[in-house]
Amino acid sequence: MDTNCTEHKDPTHKLVEEVLERQHGELLLRLEKWLSKLEEQLPSREARDLDWAREVTPAVTNRLSGMSVRSARSSRNRTGTGDEEDIRREEKPQRRSIHSDDYELAQSEADRVESMKNMTMASRQTSKTKTKLQSWAKKIQQRSAKIANSLAFNIFFGVVIVSNSVFLGLQLEWSAWQVDQLVEPAFLAGHLIYATLFSVEMSIRFIANGPRTYFFGSSCAWNWLDIFVVVPAWVEICMDIASANSSEPGTGASNFRIIRVFKLTRLLQVLRSVRIVRFVSAFRALVYSVIDTTRQLLWAMVLLILIIYSFGILFTDAVLYHLFWFSEIEDAELKKYFGSVFHSCTTLFRALMNGFDWSIAADALLPLGDFWVQLFHLYIAFCGLAVLNVITGVFVNSAIKTREKDHETLMQNMYKLKDLVGDLWTKLDKAGAGKITITEFEQMFEEEDMRAFFGAIEMNAMDAWTLFDSLDADGDHLISFEEFKERCLQLHGPARSVDLF
């Protein structure tokens, strides 16, 4: 029986030893990994850590061996069928001893942390300063934009531009009577004031719009014109001051030639007065109409040139033929008006444009015969009654279309229409319910105010129900203010009133 027990315990004892050896190897492997990590984190303490690891390793090994023996003994006292149990215990690392180098390492670590804190604080301070500067710049830009877009600002500088043009005319008129005096101190002070005002205006607009919008935006043409006006104005002022302070005789003449070059920019200062067209709607419509008709003017001039050139060749050929066969007759008037193609075309153009009495040119053709005189009359009638009137009609039509397409004019008409719609709605919705019924609409439809309003916006309907149904967009048989306003804006005009039927 003892032999059987011994045989039964030997396999169990071997199994326990194998488990303990495997756990012992795992613990040693963990210890090696922990030592390698410690070496990476503290390279300066490599030698000390290795010594400490060598001291710790035998103790841990002995302790693990003791644990193995104790585990083997306890497992031998247990009863059972010999099931395998996994025993995993982790040995707590021993607390390391304090060395003399730890203070230096702690001090260096403290210095590093302090430098990191200082860098963080500096970056935060820089970020705060940058944010403040950006907020200030944004506020300045917003205020500049508010000033530049205000009506008072635009009216003030519009008056300044017009007064500058008058000032330039007065200076030239004074210079016509005072030829010997080059620079007048009063006019020099006036130029200085206007240059300062224009510089302030340009600076405000530059800050309000920003560099990209100022130089390349929709209004960049006016901005570049301001630059070409303000910069030469300051150069001219400097040259005037230098000429006034110069006492050398040759210097004044050379400066005068340079000043004349910069005085050419005064024409641009006069052209700046066109900027006030943005503030006067009637003036703006005229200027835009003239600009838009330049394309039609080009083709109108081409048509007139072709007609004048054709008649000029006819009259010149007839005159040269007459002078060739009747050379003994000297007719100075005939040669003066129709002696060449150039003279003939000039005569025909002046006669058409009332440059002189065209009967004189017609009488000059009497030696050629009545046919050529009547042909000249036909030319005057055709060009004066047909061609010029057709060209005038084209110009008028183009001007009307330009007026209709003007964005600011459309917006003004839209605002006026909205005001009319709002006034009419207050009369329709007397109860203040926010909606009107067909009964209320029929009652108001018979009044003159409502008929006058729909007649003003060119919305003509046969009866109240037709108009009510057209204004009822959602089909709930009630008209709200939004429906009334939107449908009136959509249906106004003769081209839209067809939707009512």
UniProtKB/TrEMBL annotation:
<feature type="domain" description="EF-hand">
    <location>
        <begin position="459"/>
        <end position="494"/>
    </location>
</feature>
<dbReference type="GO" id="GO:0005248">
    <property type="term" value="F:voltage-gated sodium channel activity"/>
</dbReference>
<dbReference type="GO" id="GO:0001518">
    <property type="term" value="C:voltage-gated sodium channel complex"/>
</dbReference>
<dbReference type="InterPro" id="IPR011992">
    <property type="entry name" value="EF-hand-dom_pair"/>
</dbReference>
<feature type="transmembrane region" description="Helical">
    <location>
        <begin position="297"/>
        <end position="325"/>
    </location>
</feature>
<feature type="transmembrane region" description="Helical">
    <location>
        <begin position="376"/>
        <end position="396"/>
    </location>
</feature>
<dbReference type="GO" id="GO:0005509">
    <property type="term" value="F:calcium ion binding"/>
</dbReference>
<feature type="transmembrane region" description="Helical">
    <location>
        <begin position="188"/>
        <end position="208"/>
    </location>
</feature>
<feature type="transmembrane region" description="Helical">
    <location>
        <begin position="147"/>
        <end position="168"/>
    </location>
</feature>
<dbReference type="InterPro" id="IPR002048">
    <property type="entry name" value="EF_hand_dom"/>
</dbReference>
<feature type="region of interest" description="Disordered">
    <location>
        <begin position="63"/>
        <end position="103"/>
    </location>
</feature>
<dbReference type="Pfam" id="PF00520">
    <property type="entry name" value="Ion_trans"/>
</dbReference>
<feature type="domain" description="EF-hand">
    <location>
        <begin position="416"/>
        <end position="451"/>
    </location>
</feature>
<keyword id="KW-1133">Transmembrane helix</keyword>
<keyword id="KW-0472">Membrane</keyword>
<dbReference type="InterPro" id="IPR018247">
    <property type="entry name" value="EF_Hand_1_Ca_BS"/>
</dbReference>
<protein>
    <submittedName>
        <fullName>Catsper1 protein</fullName>
    </submittedName>
</protein>
<keyword id="KW-0812">Transmembrane</keyword>
<dbReference type="InterPro" id="IPR027359">
    <property type="entry name" value="Volt_channel_dom_sf"/>
</dbReference>
<dbReference type="InterPro" id="IPR043203">
    <property type="entry name" value="VGCC_Ca_Na"/>
</dbReference>
<keyword id="KW-0106">Calcium</keyword>
<dbReference type="InterPro" id="IPR005821">
    <property type="entry name" value="Ion_trans_dom"/>
</dbReference>
<feature type="compositionally biased region" description="Polar residues">
    <location>
        <begin position="71"/>
        <end position="80"/>
    </location>
</feature>
<feature type="compositionally biased region" description="Basic and acidic residues">
    <location>
        <begin position="86"/>
        <end position="102"/>
    </location>
</feature>
